[in-house]
Specification:
Blueprint (H helix, E strand, L loop, with lengths): L1 H45 E11 L2 E3 L5 E7 L6 E4 L3 E4 L6 E11 L1
Antiparallel strand pairs: 1-6, 2-5, 3-6, 4-5
């Protein structure tokens, strides 16, 4: 009988403390998540998309430092373009007279 009671206690006591630990962990997790959400929300509220247009003669135009091309336009009715090196618009048709790019970056207020 003593062995059965001892066995029952050894199974129930850790289970009880584990449950309490889970509740504590969950409470801590919720507090951390709330703090992170607050920081992220306040940072995102300050974020702005800053864009500018750039153009050049020929088939290539590069965005200013820190900016990325989001769209390109080509002269001579050329609709074929690509973005090279993550910063340059390239018109693929021959004899292009001008190329333009819409360049953007994310800035903070």
């Amino acid at each position: 009988m003593k062995a059965a009671v001892f066995l029952l206690l050894t199974l129930l006591v850790p289970a009880y403390h584990t449950g309490a630990q889970c509740i504590t962990d969950n409470a801590v997790d919720l507090k951390v998540q709330a703090a992170i959400s607050s920081i992220v929300s306040s940072t995102l509220a300050k974020a702005k998309l800053l864009c500018q247009n750039v153009s050049a003669r020929g088939a290539l135009v590069s965005c200013p430092a820190g900016y990325k091309p989001t769209a390109c336009a080509c002269g001579m009715a050329c609709g074929s373009w690509d973005i090279r090196s993550d910063s340059t618009c390239h018109c693929q048709c021959g004899g292009i007279d001008w190329t333009a790019a819409r360049c953007c970056k994310i800035g903070l207020e």
